Input
Amino acid sequence: QQQVKQSPQSLIVQKGGISIINCAYENTAFDYFPWYQQFPGKGPALLIAIRPDVSEKKEGRFTISFNKSAKQFSLHIMDSQPGDSATYFCAASYPRGGTASKLTFGTGTRLQVTL
Amino acid sequence: DGGITQSPKYLFRKEGQNVTLSCEQNLNHDAMYWYRQDPGQGLRLIYYSQIVNDFQKGDIAEGYSVSREKKESFPLTVTSAQKNPTAFYLCASNPPQGNQPQHFGDGTRLSIL
Output
């Protein structure tokens, strides 16, 4: 029930195209869904996050779509650029007592944006 | 600049040796975490700590140990009991309010000699 399933494992998109990465979860107690971007040799950096009370959140070229009934959420990268080439992780957490928020991560999607 | 500093960036371990990975943060965050990253497996939680002198096992704690003597520091020891230690290790922290985004360091890559 703790799993977050992410697809595809890798993705090649042409410059200017739309990149779409999907995640699905089982635990209905999850209430926070961040996406992280990671470049080689670096730690993941928060890209955008959503809570289940909204169905979509947009920040610049990045949009999260959230479908609570289907227990799915996805990341859309509009006008994909070569600089977007990185590994993307979805994650989910649910509220616990105290300060720690244990994130459950998807297995990652390696995005390559070609010229 | 506030952030999380992990050192060293690369570390080599001999068979039977314990090694310690450093993680320091100046973000005044209460909670700190250690993750292990292997290709194709995402990030898996090793240990986490909510406050000083307190820490909890994550999903893959066997063969690892931690301490939290100061708010700023959360070192991870990879013991000789960890038979497959080769991985990228990431430290993270987040503010005291629940479900806040975790901030990550730039990792330590551990390899076996």
